[in-house]
């Protein structure tokens, strides 16, 4: 049985709606519930990228993340970030493709 990306995305939204009431009951459980929905979203985006546009991902960081990004023996990446943080991605495009200018 194949599940479409729309179905999976809808289930993530439904999961968030089902757990929304936990905000007023218990913040710890609410945070854990929403963390699961965030993990599911990450899995969905990673899966879609793998299926439709496999790409090389380069991971780097400055001194502030030293020791928090590690490569495992089997080639995966493990992160040891603080429980709460804000990360801003710097998307870079190789401009060498455009540097030659248009052909007339």
Written as H for each helix and E for each strand, in order along the chain, the element string is HHHEEH
Overall mean pLDDT:
79
Q: Strand sequence of the main sheet, in spatial order?
A: 1-2
Number of E-state strands: 2
If you compute it from the alpha carbons, what radius of gyration comes out, rounded to the nearest whole angstrom? Answer: 19 Å
Low-confidence stretches: none
What structural class do the secondary elements suggest? mainly alpha
Helical region count?
Answer: 4
For the largest beta-sheet, the strand count, sense and barrel status come to: 2 strands, antiparallel
Strand content: 5-15%
Specify the helix fraction band.
40-55%
How far apart are the termini?
A: 50 Å
Shape type:
globular
Mind explaining what this structure looks like?
With 104 residues, the chain is mainly alpha-helical. It has one domain (5-99). It is 47% helix and 6% strand. The protein has 4 helices and 2 strands. It has helices at residues 5-19, 22-25, 27-52, 96-99, and strands at residues 69-71, 77-79. Strands 1-2 form a two-stranded antiparallel sheet. Strand 1 (69-71) and strand 2 form a beta hairpin. It is globular, with a radius of gyration of 19 Å. The mean pLDDT is 79.
Which properties best describe this structure?
4 helices
Quick description:
With 104 residues, this protein is mainly alpha-helical. It has one domain.
Secondary-structure blueprint of this entry?
Blueprint lengths: L4 H15 L2 H4 L1 H26 L16 E3 L5 E3 L16 H4 L5
Antiparallel strand pairs: 1-2
Helix pairs in contact: 1-3
């Amino acid at each position: 049985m194949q599940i479409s990306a729309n179905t999976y995305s809808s289930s993530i939204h439904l999961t968030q709606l089902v757990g929304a009431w936990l905000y007023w009951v218990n913040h710890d459980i609410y945070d854990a519930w929403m963390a699961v929905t965030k993990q599911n979203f990450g899995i969905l985006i990673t899966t879609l990228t793998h299926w439709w546009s496999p790409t090389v991902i380069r991971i780097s960081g400055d001194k502030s993340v030293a020791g928090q990004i590690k490569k495992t023996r089997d080639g995966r990446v493990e992160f040891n970030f603080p429980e709460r943080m804000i990360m801003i991605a710097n998307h870079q495009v190789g401009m060498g493709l455009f540097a030659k200018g248009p052909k007339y």
